[in-house]
Every structure is written in structure tokens, then in C-alpha cells.
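Researcher: Structure for this, please.
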Amino acid sequence: MFCSFVLATTILVNGLPGRAQDVVTSEDFTGASSAFVFKTSRKAAQKKIAFRSTTTVTRTKTARLESAKRITKQSVTVAKVNPKRTKSKEVDPATVKVNSAEFKRKTPQEASVIFAGVGEYYLGQDKLDDAINWFRESVQLDEKNGNAKNGLSDALTRKGDQLLTKENYDIAKLLYNEALTNNPNNAAAYAGLAEIYSAKDDGENAAANYQKALSLDSELTEVNAPLGVIYYQKGDYAQADAALQKAAAANPNNAETQFFIGLLRTKQNRPQEALAAFKRSIELDPNNPEVYYYQGEVYDSLDNDKDAIASYQKAVQLNPKYSEAWFDLGAAFYNRGRYPEAIAAYKEVVKLKPTYGEAHANLADVYRLNNNLDEAIGEYRLATTFIKDDPEIYSKFGYVAARRALTPGYRNFWKVAIDNFEKAVQMSPDNIDYTNLGWAYYNLAQTNLKEKNQTEYQANLGKARDAFVKANSMKPVPKVAAAINLNLGMTLTDLGDYQGSADALKAALGFQKNWIPAMNELGIAYRKKGDFDNAAKQFREVLKLDDKYAPAHYNLAETEFRRGNKKEARKEYEKLKTLDRPDLVTLLELVTNGEILK
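Model: Predicted structure, C-alpha cell format:
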């Protein structure tokens, strides 16, 4: 048998890409079609990153600071409109002569009241350091002066708010705690502490302090926004929904609130509401790449390719280092067959995250389907450097290495291919991995045959047979069983076991009726055995199913010629010449020593 393992024609079992295993057959010069099995579809949809967990979406620094400013502003406004404490009467510090004889005659309690009044004066002018100093002096003079303590608490809180917006969290926390020591009912101080915990990703303490702030002052509605975010991050979607709805009702112009409502609606499988929220968030803040990214996810779930890709592209335009958005953009392009654009996107990912194995694996898959074999080999090699427990990646690596091994000068890639298939078998010893290992040995044997290395040819055929027998013993599903027996039948034909080959190929057809590659191989086994009648019958059955299947015309022509029916052989030869297969035409002329031309 003249074999060269040309991967020019691919046929999938049942004629369509499978949801599970894809069986791909590769035709050689005589129509022999060895079968490789992909564990999933050879064009399996690539998974995206978003929404893999409930804690992947965090608040941005800008959003946290804006939230803190809004809460501070609201607490000051509420204090003015609806005071929660009794204030001391303001005293102009210019009128206070602490060194005068008159002042020195005052009792500590009387002096405390005056000092508290000065503190109120400075607090009203937002001179917080002066206010704190005078309130502290007042409390020291009279620890029972509740107005002074409450004033000090407010001044400390507002100073803490200033430091909070500057991200000086440690000092701000000390001030908030001191404020609560003086007034345990200071809602704004609890809100400030919550913001600090939120900035440090301590969701439990942040939520507890936000809740405490609301329980003390229900008018602090701005607190609902960050509280809803924390509930979302914790996966408590019912609580998140309630808080975010309150936040939106109180302030519909908060971009972060609308963003997280969009995330929540996505989790709740309410895509149109999610899109409405994302669009509103973009109207309020058109420069947040996160919103475009997750908007893209929703469009993608609705199969809206154009808007999904546009959203991802906007996300990476705003943040060129947004590796997750580049990754999902790559998946979106790949899943729609736009391979050059998928390659460009994944190359950005691996540039940003060189050790991200999944990106290397996905990029390798795109290169494989785009027929960039060298690039695919390089990326699969990197993928297996970072992902060492996925047999499917090793199997795909082996597949592209085997294809590369057919190129003149690349014979050494057979070792790369078989090494990877062996690793897949060691990692996941199932029928598919053994099938593909046998497939590699079988096709290496064809290379040995071309090189006229009979010893290696026979040895590798034996290894292929053993792998297929092992695969058959592992209870494969019908689709894979058909592929195994096709491969086994071909291998046994080459080993000269024609009856064993016929039995295996009949088994393949039992699993996959009217499967043309197996029918064609069965005809070859019959012809090798000298059973020309059954061989011709088999090839004619193939041509009933596909009259343009060139290998069957070739094989039928050779069979008819060998049994002396030159007229029928000549008829098939003429048909073959119309099918754009000059390789088979030339081979038939050589096999018949030119007799087919007469």
C-alpha cells in the first residue's frame, strides 16, 4: 500500500461536528483514512473568563472614593437639615480671653461650655483641626459635657473623611474609632469605617459597619450603594437587590450602582434589564472599561456578535492592559471563525500574562484551525509548561506535531507527537488517548514505509495494533468504537491479517452504518485478501453513497483490473480523471503498467 498520510480531506462521523468527541479521518493516496479522535469537538467553543465566581468584580478605587465623598456630603447635609445632636452655642474665639482674670474665675464646667462653643464655631467653618482641639479641651475640662463629646465625634469623623479620600486609612480609622468612643451613635463614623474595610476587601466587616450606620440613621441612603455591592460580592443576591434598588431610588445618577445592578441582573438571567442598567452606567460614566466588558458578556449570551465584540473592543481601548477583556474578545472572535482577529487578541493576553496557560492553549487552538502549525506547536508547548494536568492539551499538541512531521525535514516531530500522546495516556488512560496513540504509531509506520525501513515499519504497526486493542477493551462509546476499529482494521491490513482486518472494519460499520472510510477500507482488505468480488461490491456501495468519492473510483478500477475486467477498470479510470485527483490517476497508470490506457 502506498501511503503518505495527506490531511487534505477530513470527514466527521455522522458528517457533522460533534458536541462530544469529533472523529477526523485523513485520506492517503489509496484512500486509507486513519481516524484521530478529539475529546471534544475539534472546533469546541472556547470558554470566557467572566462570571466564573461571585467575587471577581471589585469596586474601583475611583468608585470607592466617590462613594466616600457622597456619604460624607450626605451626612453633613443631614446634620444641618435634621440634626441628630444638640449643639453648643457657637462662640467666636476672638472673644475668649483665656488669660484674663475674669476667665480664670470660671469653673471647669463653665469653661468647657465656652470651649465647646468655640469648637462649634470652627466646625461650622470646616476648620477641623481647630475644632478638634477646642472640643478635646472642652471634654477634658468636663467629661460630662455631652454636647462637647458629640461635637468632638462629628469633628473627628469629618477629619477622618478627609483622610479617607486621601487613602490614609490607618489614621482615618483611628479618628473614626475615637469618634465612636465619644459618640457610639455616630452613623457617619460607622460608614467611614465601612469604607476602609471595603477598600481592604474585608467584606464582612464592611457590611457590618454599613448596616450599623443605616440602623442609626436611615437618612444615610448613599450607604445602600456600597452595601449592595458587598452583598453582590458575597453572593447574597437577594440582599444585594434590595440594597441596590434603594440606592438607585435615592440616587439614580450613580454609575457604580447601575453597573452592579447590571451585574446582578445578569446573574439573575434578566439580560434585557442588565443591558439597560449597563447602558445607563455608561451614560453616567463612559470611561469605565468594566461596564463595557460585562455588557459584552450579555450581548454574547444573546448571540449579538456585533455588539458583543464592539463592547469588548471598547473595554480594551479604554484599558489596553485589560487582559480579561482581551481574552474574551479572543474567544468571541474564535467562536465565530474569525481566526486572525482571535490570534491578535490572544497575543495581547499572553503578552500581558505570559504564564497564563489557558491563553496559550486557546491561542494554540486558533493557530491549529488556521493551519499555522509551527505557531500552534509553540503555543501548545507553552500551555503544557503551565498546565500539566490536562490530557486534551497534550493530545492536541501531539496532533499538530504529527501533522508537522509529514513536512520534509521535520521527521523528528514524530517523537514530539508520540511523547505527548504517551503523556496523555499516562494522565488519562482512556480509550480516546489510546486510540490517538495508536493513530500516531500507525502514521509513523507509513513514514517508515516510505523510507523503506521495514523493521521500524513492522515494529510501529505492532505498537499501533496494541494501542487499538487496548482502546477497544475500554468500552468506548459507539462513535469512538467505530474510529478504533477503522484504525485497527487498517493496521491489520498492513500487517497482512486480512481476515482480522475485515472483522474489525465490519465492527466499525456496525457502530457507524454507511461510514464511507470504513467501507472503503473493507474493500481494500478484501482486495488484499484476493476476494475481488466482495472488494468490488464494497467499492460500488461506497459510490452509491458518494459518486464523487475519488478513492473508491481508484480502488474499484484497480480491483476490476486485477480480476481481468479491463472494460470496467477503464470506465472507473475515466471517471477518476474528471474528479481533479491527478495523483490517483497517475498511480493507477503506474500500478497497471500503463495497461489502463489501452
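Researcher: Any notable elements?
Model: The beta strands are 10-12, 22-27, 33-38. The first strand starts at residue 10 and ends at 12.
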